Amino acid sequence: MFGATCNQCGSTELESDPNQGATVCTKCGHVIEENLIVSELQFEEGSHGAANLIGRMVSNDANYKSLAAGTIGNNLSVNSRESREITLENAKRRIKSIGQQLRLNNHCVTTAFNFYKMALSRRLTYGRRQNNVYAACLYMTCRIEGTSHMLLDLSDVTQVNIFELGKTYLKLSNALCINIPPIDPCIYIVRFSNRLHKLIGTDASKVRDIELTALRLVQRMKRDWIHTGRRPSGLCGSALLVACRLNGIHCNIRDIIKIVQVCETTIRKRLAEFGDTQTGRLTLDEFMTVDLEGEDDPPCFKEARKRQKLMLQELESGDQASKFESEISKFQKMIDDKLESLRSEKQKRGRSALEGNDTDDEVITEDNAVDKIIEHETADVLTRVLNDKDTSTTVLEKLKEFRPTAKSLGLGTNRSSGLEVILAETTPSQPDDGELDLTGIDDEEIDSYLLNDKERLSREDLWTKVNSEYLQEQDKAAEEEAEHPRVKRKQTKRKRAPCVATTANEAVETMLHEKRISSKINYQVLSAIMKSDLTESIMNDIDID
């Protein structure tokens, strides 16, 4: 480097490394320069005499470098551009166009563009339409700045469904952690009053009075909790309707509907809710001069209390109580009659099964007599089994009588002890008395195992609800089976023709032909062996019978 000196020692013996871009003093070792990026522009002459820029143009917010070097022409313009830069330029142009249609100032447009850059840097624009993102950024700006623009206005300008636009707006506001303030209905009063003045042609002097009266009504609605959870257009429409009639201007509900774009039912409902408040009972002079300090309850709370009062009145009224008592007594009588009939039938069956009926032997037919004999025999067997204390030993003793002996099996006497050992192992050492061992179990634990009537009924109802479809299918299948019973067809088995063979060789060949034993056997070679003279002579000596 010509004319350069060291800042530390003043020596001119400097050494430059072009690969590392560093300049070092060889005398003291001080690094004078170590930067590859330069701030000045350098040009070089091309093959055709054109001036080319050396290096690349890198913007401050670029995420990668452009690969192509910029070519400088006569107007010194750079031809290479990044995709991100093009996207931001298109977004800024489109946001500015929408803002001009909505008559937004430059500050709102710039704020919306900054919101878009934040969404783009966090990859929130991927998978969404650009118009939805532009409109959502503009609406967030309008909500923060407090302008009188609604989401419906952006939907009309961009020709996007209002529900899709609202969904995109909520996604972006939550992802960017932007606290959107609640809507104040008062900011729409001036806008709607001006549109009403153009629609019905009111006097310009009364427009200000209508606006002040409507603002006062909306503020009172806010104090009485009517605006919470409601759209501002419905509140503004009802307030404008009341304000026009209070100031002596004839205005219909249809005119208000054309301005605020809500249905008639919504406006009438807001008027009814405002009429239930204490402010709704005041006169015009009292309303314009007196400010009530108290606040009414929300409309939803009032409706819930009204429903509860009606239910209590119905229950406390004599007619309803007598009606319920008559119905309950009717059902109780039906239940008692049914239980009594079931109890009497059960008692009759028990007496007939245990005592029998010896007085009516002449009337009993032969079939009934057989049934009675079978019942008595079954009862005797059951009583004998229940009275028998040690049934396991008797059963084993009876089994020993039917077991095979060593002589019948052709075995010696020393091998007959195996079955005795097995039977000895199966014989229980202590007979079971039939009682449950409850040692180590508390009463609370036993109570937790048992269900009361309420729990049993609840589980039964739950099981019925879960398996309702299956039960319906079973009932339907049973009805169909009863209406159209299936006729089972008898399956006839085909009898195989007996194998007729004169010699054993023919029998073996027939068996191999009908049933192949294995796929790994060469049956052709086997049949050739069977047909040989030696094999035929051996097989002929064997008796087939």
TrEMBL record:
Keywords noted in UniProt: Activator, Metal-binding, Nucleus, Transcription, Transcription regulation, Zinc, Zinc-finger
Feature: compositional bias, Basic and acidic residues: 474-485
Gene Ontology biological process terms, A to Z: transcription preinitiation complex assembly
Region (Disordered): 474-498
Superkingdom of the source species: Eukaryota
Coiled coil: none
Keyword Ion transport attributed: no
GO molecular function, one term: TBP-class protein binding
InterPro entries hit by this protein: BRF1_TBP-bd_dom, Cyclin-like_dom, Cyclin-like_sf, TFIIB, TFIIB_cyclin, Znf_TFIIB
Biased composition (Basic residues): 486-497
Domain spans labelled TFIIB-type: 2-33
A Gene Ontology cellular-component term: nucleus
Gene3D superfamilies, per the entry: 2.20.25.10, Cyclin-like, Single helix bin
Subcellular location: Nucleus
PANTHER family, per database record: TRANSCRIPTION FACTOR IIIB 90 KDA SUBUNIT (PTHR11618:SF4), TRANSCRIPTION INITIATION FACTOR IIB-RELATED (PTHR11618)
The family this protein is said to belong to: Belongs to the TFIIB family.
Protein name: B-related factor 1
